[in-house]
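Entry 14. Ran structure prediction on the chain below.
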Amino acid sequence: MLALIVIMSRSSSKPCVARVVLKKGKTQLFKDGSPMVYSGAVDRIIGRPPPRSGDIVLVADGAEKPIGWGMYNSVSMFCVRLMQLEEEATRDLSCALNMEKLLETRINEAIELRKSLGLPSASTNAFRLVNSEGDRLSGLIVDVFGDVAVIASSAAWVEKYKPEVEASVGRIDEINYINWRPSSEVLKEEGLDASNYKERDPSICPQRTKVTENGIFYAISLEGQKTGFYADQRENRQFISTISDGQRVLDMFCYSGGFALNAARGGAVNVIGVDSSLPAVELAKENIVLNNMDPGRITFLREDASEFMKGALSRNESWDIVILDPPKLAPRKKEL
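Output, structure tokens:
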């Protein structure tokens, strides 16, 4: 008998787990690892009463045979975020249909994986601990900045299990502060209103912190973009340092200067970073001082990117390396 069916039959706490039955030909995609079940892939939902957003549901093939389980959302285009496949439940019954246990297990696995990669270390204490789908927790990101963990929520289930997420992250020895940052616009599409989210209490979590990544120091504003620092770009920043020796480098949309600082550390003869955000440029300039870099070789400008490039073209300026990492210009179809 299938593991998930066995657990349901034995559990009085989960007697009415609904089944989300997939359309013919849609099953293999999810067996292969895709965690996002779009509403268009669903043929029917079996369950009375019908599941509500945040409920655990089984995901089944056309023959109603479970292929896994996940978190249901009646509003989102992601009808289900798969959390565990049937074969995984067979190997580890303790996590099957148990979101609290699965959360604890997956976060512990993420911690061990980062340790195997040497994180944190003396030269790097800023890194991504949980990378959403990459760590099998779709909608959850956890970035670690020294003794601060910033938790970015972009799924309704993450908000529902906020206490459990914070408890799992809070058990990490190095973490003294937790900053919860819901992605308000994304959560609207999940059927939640995060507009009245209470801002961080400065007495509980600082507004700023300082970290090191590959030996370069950064001042981070925990009120800044995303989680405050693009921890997922660590290896790309380091790569820039390996190709910048003797080069003229332009870092567009530079934010707090990560790529530019690595270019300067890598021996670039001249580096310019451009961003339209004053707080970002101020952070970048602070980072020059933190790293004792020569301000004659690295400069940060607050300017609109298009206007800067028009001016550069009129002056016939050129660079050997240009880093271009703009924000989303049209994140949704309606904005095209």
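DSSP finds eleven helices and 16 strands in the chain. Will compare against last week's run tomorrow.
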